[in-house]
Amino acid sequence: MKSAEADSLTIFLTPSEIRNDQPIGFWFCLRAQPKREHIAAACLRQISGVEVFSPRVHFRKYTNRGFVWFAESMFPGYFFARFNYAALNRRIRHGPAVTGFLQFGERLPLLPDALISEIRKFTNQNEVLEIDQALKPGVNVQITQGPLQGLEALVTRLITGSERVEILINWMGRSLHAETSVAHLVRLPDD
Predict the structure, then answer these.
(1) CATH number assigned to the domain comprising residue 7
(2) Cα–chain-centroid distance for residue 41?
(3) Mean pLDDT per 10-residue section of the chain, whose length is 191 residues
């Protein structure tokens, strides 16, 4: 194995080039069955000599049952693994829930360790990024239901004991205070 000269760049090699002289410190991008990335990753973690990274996002979403926590893959259909290609590629390729390697024609992209490390900075030790979509005073929102649908507002106060907030709406040249359910609001990105 040789050390990569430019460890911040993705390189593209054919399987035979990788078998002959695999660069050190690079990751493979693997494809997984839809919604089963975590299963594929867990199975590959059982193989000695395989390091797996399968980042997930954890977020709350409003459903007809109220707010429910969801966990999904950060990169739907994909996850990352580092291993000796010549020794383990067949075993990995045919692992449970794995559908193959990401390929561009005959070439496999090898991702630098620096890229995976950068993604890891945003996740906790369980490879999860928790997205806090909670509303709090000072957060800009958009109204998604009712007669004021589409208007932007500012959350001014949380109403305890319920899933309601007070918002400030600028409408027709006036500032109006209103009370609404958090289910009728969507948080706008911070500028």
Answers:
(1) 3.30.70.940
(2) 15
(3) 56 92 93 96 96 91 72 95 95 96 96 94 87 80 86 88 84 88 80 63
